[in-house]
Amino acid sequence: MDLVVPRPEGLYCPPGDFYIDPWRPVARAVITHGHGDHARPGHRHYLAAAAGAGILRARLGDIPLETLPYGRSLRHRGVDISFHPAGHVLGSAQVRLAYGGEVWVASGDYKLEADGTCAPFEPVRCDAFITESTFGLPIYRWPPQAELAAQINAWWAANAAAGRTSVLFCYAFGKAQRILHMLDAAIGPIVVHGALEALNAAYRDAGVALPATLRVNDVGEAAALRQAMVLASPSAQGSPWLRRFGDYADAFASGWMRIRGTRRRRGVDRGFVLSDHADWPGLLAAIAATGAGRVFVTHGSVPVLVRWLAEQGLQAQAFDTEYGEGAQAEEAAGSETEEGVAPQVDVADAEPATPPAKPGGEPAQ
Ligand SMILES: [Zn+2]
Ligand SMILES: [Zn+2]
Description:
The chain is α/β, with parallel strands linked by helices. The chain has helices at residues 53-60, 145-161, 175-182, 194-205, 222-225, 262-266, 280-290, 302-311, 331-339; strands spanning 5-7, 10-13, 18-20, 29-31, 46-49, 65-68, 73-76, 79-85, 93-99, 102-106, 128-133, 166-169, 190-192, 229-232, 249-253, 270-272, 294-300, 315-318. The protein has two domains: 5-140 and 276-335, Ribonuclease Z/Hydroxyacylglutathione hydrolase-like (Metallo-beta-lactamase, Chain A), CATH 3.60.15; 145-272, 3-Layer(aba) Sandwich (Rossmann fold).
């Protein structure tokens, strides 16, 4: 029996009578993580991983929230539900459902590289795996985080030496905290736009080490401001708030920066290729590690990934969802709302993919 089916309200578990990350208000919602396209207001009951409670409350207020630590399971109408780290943002989880001898995993959004700001991704064996495909094209390959940290700190140090403030635009939840975690605070003061501070507080409350951050008015003299790294959400771009920084250098951190022309369209000096989502090799490795024979693809480059998986002999199909949409959504939707659509990439121009280990548990030949 199918443990998850698409319905107009969201992905539905028939035996359990609940939804996973529903986009319309429902009686029972199981939430993978706090990004706006997955955790929406208005449900009568929320179940989420305990590690994400602070974030969900910071974003949705005093919701009727029940939590479960990673790895612990709860039986609801005969369905065993458990959460397993997805490595995407603080509190992000894959939802494992077990019922009648079948195991299904809905992974929400995920990333394989450990980043130091949330529990790292853990592969979960299952019969059916529900995956995102935000960056599901072979051209998307992320540099290691240590390399990105070195690039960002070098850019900041060079600007500071020239007496120019560094302004780095990034999404407020997840991306901003990862960058904070990477910054070398010895270079200068770190200033954050007000929109980021509530989420930083949720991370600090959860025990994630972030360097000290200042609000812009807390930085005394103008000279200190010229040594500063300023983190701001993309909505601050072009706003009067930035004028106080004078002739600043700016940059944008996003997976879309992998595509030529995106930095120019964003109108910034530098682009850093930083994403909270799995890159192409990451998606394939994660799917192979589940051993699943059936794969459902929810959002992003859906047809490309479905076709690739089908060619590997998997039963792959699309699930029509509303993830990656909405004003509060993360990277993918932010790109859509601000640039019209995600950058178009001609698949024919993409690099050929390296085939991963054969999904289904057999070793690669
Ligand atoms: Zn997300
Ligand atoms: Zn998403």
